[in-house]
């Protein structure tokens, strides 16, 4: 059988895997609100969730999510080959591929996502704190960075849109 890509299946699998790994989209929306509320006090949860959905609709984002979660799951089941198994299982500090993979998500709305990603990775609010709490069973070495990256990208999208709205308004005011 020849390989044919089914985009709908990939999108659906991404949503399902995020849920299966215990991440609620609303929690990602809360991260976006946390990142943007000082800049846009009027920003609503609905706008944040809409932005998260737009990020999640992108193929490169879906690919990164599926890849990262797959590695977390295999590490959890002890099915990776050494030494990678131990590195991912123990979230080894010098293993940085989790962050690098997440950059393909951060990038989708331009480089301003990097600042948000770095900030949220350091402060670990909400769901990120939970994903980072090691219980010796659930492995979220990739997922914590992925979730932070989705929030960072969704925040960048909001920043770009707000700027565009502002410029349109200025244009109207000038006319
Ligand atoms: Mg990580």
Automatic annotation (TrEMBL):
Xref: Pfam families: PgpA (PF04608)
InterPro entries registered for this protein in UniProt: PgpA-like_sf, Put_PGPase, YutG/PgpA
YutG/PgpA domain segment(s): 37-159
Residue ranges of the TM segments: none
GO biological-process terms attached to the record: lipid metabolic process
Gene Ontology molecular function: phosphatidylglycerophosphatase activity
Name under which the protein is recorded: Phosphatidylglycerophosphatase A
Species this chain originates from: Paenibacillus flagellatus
């Amino acid at each position: 059988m020849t390989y044919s890509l089914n985009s709908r299946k990939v999108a659906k699998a991404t949503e399902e895997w995020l849920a299966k790994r215990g991440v609620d989209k609303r929690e990602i929306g809360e991260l976006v609100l946390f990142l943007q509320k000082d800049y846009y006090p009027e920003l609503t949860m609905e706008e944040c969730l809409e932005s998260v959905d737009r990020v999640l609709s992108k193929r490169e984002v879906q690919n990164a999510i599926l890849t990262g979660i797959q590695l977390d799951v295999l590490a959890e089941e002890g099915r990776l080959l050494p030494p990678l198994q131990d590195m991912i299982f123990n979230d080894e500090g010098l293993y940085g591929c989790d962050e690098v993979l997440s950059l393909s998500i951060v990038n989708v709305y331009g480089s301003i996502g990097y600042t948000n990603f770095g900030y949220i990775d350091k402060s670990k609010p909400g769901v990120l704190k939970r994903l980072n709490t090691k219980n010796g069973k659930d492995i979220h070495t990739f997922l914590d960075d992925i979730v932070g990256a989705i929030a960072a990208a969704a925040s960048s999208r909001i920043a770009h849109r707000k700027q565009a709205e502002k410029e349109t308004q200025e244009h109207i005011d000038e006319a």
